[in-house]
C-alpha cells in the first residue's frame, strides 16, 4: 500500500511546504527550525512522542498560530497573516484531536457548514431566494450526502451530531473537513479512543479518502496505523525533526527507535 | 398517530413544563402532517385571528383594567423585539444586554425626523430609522464583537447605558424632557375631524361579552385606518404586519447558508472559523440585523398613541426584560421567542390587580422556569429532542446504580 502514487520519482507537486518554522511560547521552543513538505496525492504521517510539537505544527499550518520565524507555503504561496477561514478556503481542512462538532446541529448540517466554505451566497440571496441560493443549496446538499456515504454514516444524517456514537462523531469530523473541498486534509489523531476493529475501518477510510483525490496529513500515536496507511513519515521530537522517510525506513531508524518506538512498542502490541 | 405518541413518551417522569413542550411537539407534528392546502388555510386563519384579537376581546384573555388594544400593541412590540433579539442571542449566540439601546436609537431617529427638526411623514422616517439603527449596530459591533461570551455581555450592557445617558445630555434630542408630540402615521382614508367625525374608511365594531355570550359593541368602534390618540388597534395592526414580514424574512434567512453559519459560530467559534466560516462577518451581520429589528420596533413605539419618548422610556430594565423574553420563550426558536415576548408583556398587564406583587411573581416564574425548563418554554425542537435523550440516559444510568 505504501508504494502507491506520488513518490515514484519525477518532479513532484508540493502541496504544502513547511519552511524552517520556529515557534516559541515565551521561553519554550515548541518547534525548532522544522522543514518538510507534503506532496500531492500522498498520505504523510506526522508522528512523535507526546509533546513533540505535532499539534503545534498542525496549528501553524491551519493558521491558529503564527510562526515566530520561517513560513508555511501552500501551493507556493505563504500562509502568514491569512485569516483562518481564508486558509480553509484556499484548501486546507482539518479535524480536531478532541472532537469539535457543532453539537446541536444535525449531521447533515454539520457537513453543509463545511460545504458552504466556498459558497458565495449572502444575506440577500437567502432573503430573496435567488437562483444562486437555490443552486448552491441543492449542490451542497448533494455533496454533503455523498460525503456522509463515503465515511459511512449517511443513515444518520438527520440525527443531532451530539447524539452520534464516538466513532461516528470522528467520521463526521472527517466528512465535514472533506466538505470544504480541501487540497490537503489534515487529520489530528483520528484514531484516538478507537478499538482495533475501528482502527482497521479507519485505515480503510483514510485510504479511500486519498483515492478520492485528497492529499492527507495524518497525525497519529498508533504506530501500526501509521505504518499501515502512510506513504511517508516525518518524526518530531522535542520540536525538532529527527527523521523523514518511508515507513520501512522509519521503522529501522535508530534515532526514531530510541525516541519513540522503543517506548511505544509495548503498549502498541 | 398513536404509535408516534408512544414512541415519544419517555420513561422519565416529566414536569408540567416538559409536558407542555411535548404537547407542542405533537401540535407541530400534526400540523406538518397536514396537506399543504390545509396548512396554508390554518396559517391564514391564525393570522386573521391575530389581527382580530383586540376586536374580539375574548373573555379571560382580555384586560378589563386597561385598554386591551393598547396591551396588544405592547405585546406585539415585545414579540417583535424578541424576534430580533433571538437572531442575536438565539441564532448567533451573542449575549446582548444592551438591546434597549437600539430600541432607543430607532425611536429617537423617528422622533427627530418627524418632529421639529424635519417634519418627515412617518413612513418615510421608518426606513431611515431602520437604516440608522443598523449602522449603529455595525459601529457598536465592529469593535465589541471581537470579545466573546461574558465579556461581550458586559460591553453591550455598557453601550445600552451609554446611549441612554448620551441622549439624556444632548439638548438637540430634548435631553431629559424627551421629544413630545411625535406625529402619528398618516391616516389612511378620511382625516378625522374632532370631535364628531372619527374619520377613516369604515368603522369596525368590537365585541362585548356578557359572560360567554358575545354581542356587538356599537359604542366602541375601530375606524379603519385612523392613527390617532384614541385607538391603539390600528397601531397594533401595523406592528403585526411588520412582525409577519420580519418573521417571513427570519425564516428564509435562517434556513440558508447564513443561518447555518450563525449556528456553527454559536456552537464552536474556532471550529466554525476553521471550516471556512468568516465568523466575524456573520456575527456582525446578526448584530446589525437584530439592531435593525429593534430599531423598527422602537420607531413604531415613538410614533404610537402617546407620541412621546424620553430617556426614561429606555431604562436598562427593559433590556433585561427583552433578554428574559427570549430566554423564557426558548432561545433559538422564533416561535418560542415570540411567545416569551408575549408573556413578558402581557402577564403584568393582565394581572394588574396584583400590581404590587408583579415583580415578585415574575421572579418566581423565572425561578420555576430555570429549575424545570432551563432551555425555555419552547426551545428549538432539536434542543428538546437532545434534552429528552439526555434525561432518558440519566434515568437508565440511575437505575443501574440502584441495581448495584
Automatic annotation (TrEMBL), chain A:
<keyword id="KW-0547">Nucleotide-binding</keyword>
<dbReference type="GO" id="GO:0015192">
    <property type="term" value="F:L-phenylalanine transmembrane transporter activity"/>
</dbReference>
<dbReference type="GO" id="GO:0005304">
    <property type="term" value="F:L-valine transmembrane transporter activity"/>
</dbReference>
<dbReference type="Pfam" id="PF12399">
    <property type="entry name" value="BCA_ABC_TP_C"/>
</dbReference>
<dbReference type="GO" id="GO:0042941">
    <property type="term" value="P:D-alanine transmembrane transport"/>
</dbReference>
<dbReference type="GO" id="GO:0015188">
    <property type="term" value="F:L-isoleucine transmembrane transporter activity"/>
</dbReference>
<dbReference type="InterPro" id="IPR051120">
    <property type="entry name" value="ABC_AA/LPS_Transport"/>
</dbReference>
<dbReference type="GO" id="GO:0005886">
    <property type="term" value="C:plasma membrane"/>
</dbReference>
<dbReference type="InterPro" id="IPR032823">
    <property type="entry name" value="BCA_ABC_TP_C"/>
</dbReference>
<dbReference type="GO" id="GO:1903805">
    <property type="term" value="P:L-valine import across plasma membrane"/>
</dbReference>
<dbReference type="GO" id="GO:0016887">
    <property type="term" value="F:ATP hydrolysis activity"/>
</dbReference>
<protein>
    <submittedName>
        <fullName>ABC transporter ATP-binding protein</fullName>
    </submittedName>
</protein>
<dbReference type="GO" id="GO:0015808">
    <property type="term" value="P:L-alanine transport"/>
</dbReference>
<dbReference type="GO" id="GO:0005524">
    <property type="term" value="F:ATP binding"/>
</dbReference>
<keyword id="KW-0813">Transport</keyword>
<dbReference type="InterPro" id="IPR017871">
    <property type="entry name" value="ABC_transporter-like_CS"/>
</dbReference>
<dbReference type="InterPro" id="IPR027417">
    <property type="entry name" value="P-loop_NTPase"/>
</dbReference>
<keyword id="KW-0067">ATP-binding</keyword>
<dbReference type="GO" id="GO:1903806">
    <property type="term" value="P:L-isoleucine import across plasma membrane"/>
</dbReference>
<feature type="domain" description="ABC transporter">
    <location>
        <begin position="16"/>
        <end position="263"/>
    </location>
</feature>
<dbReference type="Pfam" id="PF00005">
    <property type="entry name" value="ABC_tran"/>
</dbReference>
<dbReference type="InterPro" id="IPR003439">
    <property type="entry name" value="ABC_transporter-like_ATP-bd"/>
</dbReference>
From TrEMBL, chain B:
<dbReference type="GO" id="GO:0015658">
    <property type="term" value="F:branched-chain amino acid transmembrane transporter activity"/>
</dbReference>
<keyword id="KW-0812">Transmembrane</keyword>
<dbReference type="Pfam" id="PF02653">
    <property type="entry name" value="BPD_transp_2"/>
</dbReference>
<dbReference type="GO" id="GO:0005886">
    <property type="term" value="C:plasma membrane"/>
</dbReference>
<feature type="transmembrane region" description="Helical">
    <location>
        <begin position="97"/>
        <end position="116"/>
    </location>
</feature>
<protein>
    <submittedName>
        <fullName>Branched-chain amino acid ABC transporter permease</fullName>
    </submittedName>
</protein>
<feature type="transmembrane region" description="Helical">
    <location>
        <begin position="68"/>
        <end position="91"/>
    </location>
</feature>
<feature type="transmembrane region" description="Helical">
    <location>
        <begin position="284"/>
        <end position="302"/>
    </location>
</feature>
<feature type="transmembrane region" description="Helical">
    <location>
        <begin position="314"/>
        <end position="332"/>
    </location>
</feature>
<keyword id="KW-1003">Cell membrane</keyword>
<feature type="transmembrane region" description="Helical">
    <location>
        <begin position="123"/>
        <end position="142"/>
    </location>
</feature>
<keyword id="KW-0472">Membrane</keyword>
<feature type="transmembrane region" description="Helical">
    <location>
        <begin position="353"/>
        <end position="372"/>
    </location>
</feature>
<feature type="transmembrane region" description="Helical">
    <location>
        <begin position="37"/>
        <end position="56"/>
    </location>
</feature>
<dbReference type="InterPro" id="IPR043428">
    <property type="entry name" value="LivM-like"/>
</dbReference>
<feature type="transmembrane region" description="Helical">
    <location>
        <begin position="224"/>
        <end position="248"/>
    </location>
</feature>
<dbReference type="InterPro" id="IPR001851">
    <property type="entry name" value="ABC_transp_permease"/>
</dbReference>
<keyword id="KW-1133">Transmembrane helix</keyword>
Amino acid at each position: 500500500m505504501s508504494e502507491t502514487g506520488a513518490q515514484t520519482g519525477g518532479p513532484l507537486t508540493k502541496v504544502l511546504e513547511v519552511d524552517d518554522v520556529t515557534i516559541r511560547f515565551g521561553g519554550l521552543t515548541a518547534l525548532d527550525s522544522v522543514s518538510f513538505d507534503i506532496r500531492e496525492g500522498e498520505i504523510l504521517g506526522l508522528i512523535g512522542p507526546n509533546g513533540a510539537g505535532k499539534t503545534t505544527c498542525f496549528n501553524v499550518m491551519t493558521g491558529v498560530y503564527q510562526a515566530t520565524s520561517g513560513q508555511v507555503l501552500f501551493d507556493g504561496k505563504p500562509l502568514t497573516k491569512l485569516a483562518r477561514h481564508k486558509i480553509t478556503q484556499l484548501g486546507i481542512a482539518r479535524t480536531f484531536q478532541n472532537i469539535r462538532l457543532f453539537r446541536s446541529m444535525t449531521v447533515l448540517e454539520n457537513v453543509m457548514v463545511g460545504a458552504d466554505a466556498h459558497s458565495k451566497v449572502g444575506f440577500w440571496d437567502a432573503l430573496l431566494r435567488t437562483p444562486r441560493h437555490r443552486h448552491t443549496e441543492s449542490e451542497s446538499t448533494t455533496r454533503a450526502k455523498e460525503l456522509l456515504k463515503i465515511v459511512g454514516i449517511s443513515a444518520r444524517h438527520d440525527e443531532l451530531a451530539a447524539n452520534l456514537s464516538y466513532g461516528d462523531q470522528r467520521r463526521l469530523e472527517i466528512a465535514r473537513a472533506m466538505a470544504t473541498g480541501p487540497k490537503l486534509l489534515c487529520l489530528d489523531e483520528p484514531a484516538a479512543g478507537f478499538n482495533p476493529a475501528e482502527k482497521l475501518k479507519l485505515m480503510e477510510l483514510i485510504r479511500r479518502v486519498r483515492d478520492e483525490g485528497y492529499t492527507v496529513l495524518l497525525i497519529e500515536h498508533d504506530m501500526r496505523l501509521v505504518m499501515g496507511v502512510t506513504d511517508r513519515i516525518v518524526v518530531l521530537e522535542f520540536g525538532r525533526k529527527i527523521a523523514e522517510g518511508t515507513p520501512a525506513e522509519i521503522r529501522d531508524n535508530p534515532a526514531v527507535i530510541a525516541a519513540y518506538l522503543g517506548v511505544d512498542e509495548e503498549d502498541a502490541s | 398517530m398513536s404509535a408516534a405518541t408512544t414512541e415519544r413518551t419517555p420513561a422519565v417522569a416529566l414536569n408540567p413544563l416538559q409536558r407542555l413542550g411535548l404537547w407542542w411537539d405533537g401540535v407541530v407534528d400534526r400540523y406538518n402532517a397536514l396537506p399543504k392546502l390545509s396548512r396554508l388555510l390554518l396559517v391564514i386563519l391564525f393570522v386573521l385571528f391575530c389581527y382580530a384579537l383586540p376586536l374580539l376581546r375574548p373573555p379571560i384573555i382580555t384586560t378589563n383594567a386597561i385598554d386591551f388594544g393598547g396591551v396588544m400593541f405592547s405585546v406585539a412590540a415585545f414579540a417583535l423585539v424578541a424576534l430580533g433579539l433571538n437572531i442575536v442571542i438565539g441564532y448567533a449566540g451573542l449575549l446582548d444586554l444592551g438591546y434597549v439601546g437600539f430600541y432607543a436609537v430607532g425611536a429617537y431617529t423617528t422622533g427627530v425626523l418627524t418632529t421639529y427638526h424635519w417634519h418627515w411623514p412617518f413612513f418615510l422616517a421608518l426606513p431611515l430609522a431602520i437604516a440608522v439603527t443598523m449602522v449603529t449596530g455595525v459601529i457598536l459591533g465592529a469593535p465589541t464583537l471581537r470579545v466573546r461570551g461574558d465579556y461581550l455581555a458586559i460591553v453591550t450592557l455598557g453601550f445600552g447605558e451609554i446611549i441612554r445617558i448620551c441622549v439624556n445630555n444632548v439638548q438637540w434630542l430634548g435631553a431629559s424632557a424627551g421629544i413630545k408630540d411625535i406625529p402619528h402615521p398618516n391616516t389612511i382614508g378620511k382625516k378625522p375631524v374632532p370631535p364628531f367625525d372619527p374619520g377613516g374608511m369604515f368603522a369596525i365594531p368590537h365585541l362585548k361579552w356578557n359572560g360567554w355570550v358575545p354581542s356587538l359593541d356599537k359604542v366602541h368602534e375601530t375606524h379603519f385606518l385612523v392613527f390617532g390618540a384614541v385607538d391603539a388597534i390600528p397601531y397594533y395592526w401595523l406592528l403585526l404586519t411588520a412582525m409577519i414580514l420580519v418573521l417571513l424574512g427570519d425564516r428564509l434567512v435562517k434556513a440558508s447558508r447564513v443561518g447555518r453559519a450563525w449556528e456553527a459560530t454559536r456552537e464552536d467559534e474556532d471550529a466554525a472559523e476553521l471550516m471556512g466560516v468568516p465568523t466575524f462577518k456573520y456575527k456582525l451581520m446578526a448584530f446589525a440585523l437584530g439592531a435593525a429589528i429593534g430599531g423598527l420596533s422602537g420607531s413604531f413605539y415613538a410614533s404610537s398613541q402617546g407620541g412621546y419618548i424620553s430617556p426614561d422610556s429606555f431604562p436598562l430594565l427593559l433590556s433585561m426584560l427583552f433578554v428574559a423574553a427570549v430566554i423564557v420563550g426558548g432561545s433559538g426558536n422564533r416561535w418560542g421567542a415570540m411567545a416569551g415576548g408575549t408573556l413578558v408583556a402581557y402577564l403584568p398587564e393582565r394581572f394588574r390587580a396584583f400590581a404590587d406583587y408583579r415583580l415578585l411573581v415574575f421572579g418566581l416564574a423565572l425561578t420555576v422556569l430555570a429549575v424545570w425548563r432551563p432551555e425555555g418554554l419552547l426551545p428549538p425542537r432539536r434542543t428538546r429532542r437532545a434534552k429528552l435523550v439526555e434525561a432518558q440516559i440519566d434515568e437508565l444510568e440511575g437505575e443501574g446504580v440502584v441495581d448495584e
